[in-house]
Design a protein that fits this description.
Elements lengths: L1 H14 L3 H5 L9 H19 L4 E7 L7 H4 L3 E8 L2 H11 L4 E5 L11 E7 L10 H11 E12 L11 E5 L2 E5 L5 E5 L5 H10 L6 E3 L4 E7 L3
Parallel strand pairs: 1-2, 1-4, 2-3, 4-5
Antiparallel strand pairs: 5-10, 6-7, 7-8, 9-10
Length: 228
């Protein structure tokens, strides 16, 4: 498992310069204007839910990547701590935002443990890359990182082939996918597409008051709390 997780880190480090093309439906991810409008409409549903909350003092963002969601978090947080294993992702995020309200930590998300508690923990398109055997340990770490009454919010992918390019992804069975970068390099990563009801049950078993919802086509998301 250690080799697989390192391979996954290597993939996202190598993918960092082209990652935004996926979210903004550009280049090889461009499936036409109508598709892009629907994608953006559903992304806006998630953004509005995230931003529709009281301002938070200190937010932890796990796997912030290039800053797509960090940019939203600084609208509702006084301070954001952005935790990522990839120095390449951190460099892009830092250059894009240029905010003194965001601090960065480079660390392995599977071994890092919070030294304080946060008012909000957020992760975007990360939970689906956590191996099933690591999920409970990861969720316990998230629970411990949240202050009592603190908010947990995440967004991830529904299983939909059109979210990718026609040549980017190959299913390897179980939890594994093969991904192809634009230069042809191949990587194996973990990718799990969750059923919202089953994931809701898992999160509640791990102590959160939360429900996982879906947009019509592309995303799942959840907005809940750690009980006081």
């Amino acid at each position: 498992m250690t080799d697989l997780l390192q391979h996954q880190i290597d993939y996202y480090s190598a993918r960092a310069p082209e990652y935004d093309q996926w979210f903004y439906r550009q280049g090889r991810y461009d499936r036409g204007a109508a598709f892009k409008r629907q994608w953006e409409s559903e992304a806006q549903i998630v953004r509005e839910q995230l931003l529709n909350a009281p301002r938070q003092k200190h937010i932890l963002e796990m796997a912030p990547g290039t800053g797509i969601w960090t940019e939203q978090l600084i609208k509702i947080g006084d301070q954001v701590t952005a935790l990522d294993a990839s120095p390449e992702m951190i460099a892009i995020n830092k250059a894009k935002l240029g905010s003194d309200r965001v601090s960065y930590i480079q660390a392995d998300l599977f071994t890092w443990r919070a030294q304080r508690q946060y008012d909000l923990v957020f992760f975007g398109f990360w939970l689906s890359h956590v191996p099933g055997e690591e999920l409970s340990t990861f969720l316990r770490a998230v629970y411990d990182a949240l202050a009592p009454g603190g908010r947990l919010f995440f967004v991830d992918s529904q299983e939909r082939e059109s979210s990718h390019t026609r040549r980017e992804t190959a299913d390897l069975g179980g939890e594994l996918q093969q991904r192809v970068l634009s230069d042809g390099r191949l990587y194996e990563i973990v990718k799990i597409y969750y059923d919202p009801a089953q994931l809701t049950a898992t999160l509640r078993e791990n102590g959160f008051e939360i429900e996982v919802l879906s947009t019509p086509n592309f995303f799942i998301y959840a907005d809940g709390v750690k009980p006081i």
